[in-house]
Amino acid sequence: MTLKLGVIGTGAIGQEHIRRCNNVLQGAKVVAVSDINVEGAKAALQRLNIEAEVFADGHDVIKSPNVDAILVTSWDPTHEDFTLAAVAAGKYVFCEKPLAMSAEGCRRVVDAEIKHGKRLVQVGFMRPYDAGYRALKKVITDGDIGEPLMLHCAHRNPTVPESYDTPAAITNTLIHELDVLRWLTNDDYKTVQVVFPRVTSKSHAKLKDPQIVLFETQKGVRIDVEIFVNCVYGYDIQCEVVGELGIARLPEPSAVQTRKAAQLATPILTDWKDRFIGAYDVELQAFINDVKADVLTGPSAWDGFAASVAADACLKAQVSGAIEAIEMPPRPAFYDKK
Ligand code: NAI
Ligand code: ISE
C-alpha cells in the first residue's frame, strides 16, 4: 500500500521533502499540499513535475479523506496548531522543528497525544539520523574516549533573512543542538547562560549575531555552542567531545581535496539541504516505514518538548544575562522506548 501524504508548507524544506518522498524514498506519495501562497505551491509542484491537490488551508489537507499522514513544513509558529489538528483527526504527523514556540505549546501536543492513546507525532530532528552523528555517538557509548567532560559546538549559517531575530537563534537554530546533544551524551541540561560577543556588521537590526550558549548538564559536563548565522563563508556544523581519554569530533562531510596553484583546498558546504541530505532521507523513510507498521520510533513529541524546555531557559538567559536553571519534568511512561 502506498502511503498518501499531505504536505503543509511548500517553501524550501517542503519542496525538498515533496521531492524526496516522491522521487527518492519508497512506499509513499504526496497527494495533497497547502500553502498560504497558493500560487507559489502550484509553481513548486510544476517545477518538481509532481501532481497533487492544492488547498489554501492546511486544515483541509488534514481533513482530506484522501490523505493518510501529514508533513508540517510551514513556518515555525504554525506547527503546534497543525500538529494538534492532525492528532485530533487521528492521523500520523511529521512536524518540522520546532514542535511549538514554547515548552507550554509542546506540552499541549504531548497531552493531546497521550489522551489519544498512541504516538502519532514525529518531530523533524534529523541529526540523530546523520551518519556522522551516529558514528560520534558510537565512539562515546563504546567508551573509546572515556566519560565526556566538555563539548565544543558550532552552528553556522552563511546568512539569514531580515525576519530572523535574536530569539530565533534559539527557537529556529539552536533547537537542533538542544535535541541532538541530549541524545549524543544521554544527559540532560541543568543550567544555561547566553553571552554575546561583538556583533558582526553582516547582521540585521533585530539580530544579535553571533551568540555563545553555555550549558552545564546534570552529569556536570560543560557545553559551549556558538551560533553564528551570518558567518558568510558556509554552512558549518561542528561538534567536538572532550573525554577523559581522548577527543572525538563530528566528521566533516566527505569532499574531494585538490592540490593546485600552490594550495590545498577542501570545499565547505553552504546549504543545510546538502549538509544533511542523507539524514533527511533516512528520517523520512523511517517515518514512512513506521507509519505503515503503525508504531512510531523516531524523535517524539516528548523530545520536542524537552528541547523546548531548554529553549525557554535559553530565551530567558538571552535577556537576563544570568545563569538560568533548566528544569525538566520526568518523562511520562507513555514515551518509554518500546
Ligand atoms: P520557507 O519560508 O522557505 O517555507 C515555509 C512555507 O510555509 C512558505 O511557503 C510559507 O508561505 C508557508 N506557510 C506559512 N504559514 C503557513 C500556513 N499557515 N499554512 C500553509 N503554509 C504556510 O521556510 P523553510 O526553510 O522551508 O522552513 C519551514 C519549516 O521547516 C520551518 O519551521 C523550519 O524551522 C523548518 N526547517 C527545518 C530544517 C531542518 O533541518 N530540519 C531545515 C529548514 C527548515
Ligand atoms: C533552519 O531552519 C534549519 O533547520 C537548519 O537545519 C538550520 O541549520 C538553520 O539554522 C535553520 O535556520
TrEMBL record:
Q: Which reaction does it catalyse?
A: myo-inositol + NAD(+) = scyllo-inosose + NADH + H(+)
Among its keywords, does the record have NAD?
A: yes
EC?
1.1.1.18
**The keyword tRNA-binding appears for this protein:** no
Q: What InterPro entries would the database entry show?
A: Gfo-Idh-MocA_inositol_DH, Gfo/Idh/MocA-like_OxRdtase_C, Gfo/Idh/MocA-like_OxRdtase_N, MI/DCI_dehydrogenase, NAD(P)-bd_dom_sf
- One Pfam family name is GFO_IDH_MocA
Q: Which UniProt keywords apply?
A: NAD, Oxidoreductase
Domain named Gfo/Idh/MocA-like oxidoreductase C-terminal is located at 137-321
Record-annotated Gfo/Idh/MocA-like oxidoreductase N-terminal domain positions? 4-125
Q: How does it assemble?
A: Homotetramer.
- Family named by the database record: Belongs to the Gfo/Idh/MocA family.
User: Briefly, what is this protein's role?
Assistant: Involved in the oxidation of myo-inositol (MI) to 2-keto-myo-inositol (2KMI or 2-inosose).
Protein name according to UniProt: Inositol 2-dehydrogenase
